[in-house]
Amino acid sequence: MPDMSSDMMELIIEFTYTGSVNVTEYNVWRLFMAADYFNLVELVQICCNFFEKTLCPDNCIGIWQFTKNYHVPELHLKAFHYVLSHFEEVAFCKEFLQLSAQEVSDIISRDTLTVRQEAAVFEAIIRWIAHEPQEREGDADLLLPKVRLSMMPTEYIQRHVLSNKLVTDNLRCQAMVSEVIEDRIHARPRLPSAILLAIGGLSSGMALTNVIKAFDVNVNHWMSINVSEPPRSHHGAAYLGGYVYCVGGFDQAFIANNSVRRFDLSTQTWQEVAPMHSHRGNVSVTVLNGCIYAMGGSDGSTHLSSAEFYRPETNQWLQIAPMHEMRSDASCTALNGKIYICGGFDGNVELQTAECYNPETNQWTLISPMSSRRSGVGVIAYDHHVYAVGGFDGTDYLQTAEVYNPHNNTWRNMTSMMTPRCNFGIEVVEDRLFVVGGFSGFTTTSNVEYYDRETNEWSQACDMDVGRIALSCCVVSGLPNMAEYTIP
């Protein structure tokens, strides 16, 4: 048997007798080829699982190219998807520089290529050509048209593209770039890696809505997804396993409910799942370790300290230890394997306190209190910290925000929002913290703004077409039908 080493043959024979094998990064390539040669389907799958678990920017192109020659379509597709979704890191790796011009073209032409700025695509092409300039300069004609120049600022094109030697020495490339600048010919935007959904709530006239709004950060635009689902407000939303779960909240009669519905993003259909143990309006919801946690809220007569979590694989809610305080209208997030919940209202006063839940011990621990009382606050994990934004302190509607460091149990103040708000949606998309809607103290607002930790500034994003209060937001990613949630 040519090209079959004795150590590899030993592993194959051992597997046929025992059904197990020690797969390592040093033997997986040869083991895969040997398993394919002997048509050991189970061993091929074991190797594929190893490849999938170890996918990283340094090896994803190699795995993608390697699997072209074998019938493992699922792994081949996952490797290519990894290349597209981690392109900005992959483009700096050695494997990228070894690609053929056609392979580079296949990658950068995709709508699903994930880049924060289109300039990253242009700069990747320049690096690829510069690796072997004499052999590759002629490929500029093939690659530059795949860059969506109209997505770039004109200033960047003039300063970095038109002045580049590959463009100045190529009349066709010059003409193409000039045409984009002069006529602003619009290329189709790339699909975002993630979509922000704003679900339910009360509109400006205090009427419940069941419309889901989807925000495409790449084009800074909202679109509506009409769903035939009873509306709710003051609920929680969570994305898990391809579904968006709507948890608790108030119905049209403003009665707190314990129902949980999930929205299948592939089929755009709703399904009822197991109800919670408690009715919870103004509930706080987050996801941790593949489970959905629901904490506090109000059952219509009592403000709750109880909490529970949902296991989707068993369709079952299980109760956990109660919090130290009753918290309605609080907000929570998961960070480093724990849950942090901040602020809220206990029936008498807006709360300044915060606490942390450890699922391994089933215990809540009070942490340092915030600098302000905050009910209707937005809490989110961002940049390895817990951010508490906005809310109502009992007197004023707040635009201030503060940040908790779990390593030293301290809060610090941060840059304030442009608009005061409470009972709004909050999420992190493309490494930016977005706040959506809410009540400004005078009116229900449609305003949306985002915070960028790199600039330490808040900026305006596209407003929703209608104001909303008591909505809930979540971020969805990896959808096979992502185009259905973006602007055509």
Automatic annotation (TrEMBL):
The record's section on SMART domains has:
BACK (SM00875), Kelch (SM00612)
Q: Which UniProt keywords apply?
A: Kelch repeat, Repeat
The answer to whether the entry has keyword Repeat is yes
What SUPFAM superfamilies does the database record attribute to this sequence? Kelch motif, POZ domain
Which residue range or ranges hold the BACK domain? 60-162
Mention any Pfam family matching this sequence. Kelch_KLHDC2_KLHL20_DRC7
The name this protein carries in UniProt is: Kelch-like protein 10
Encoded by which gene?
LOC114441827
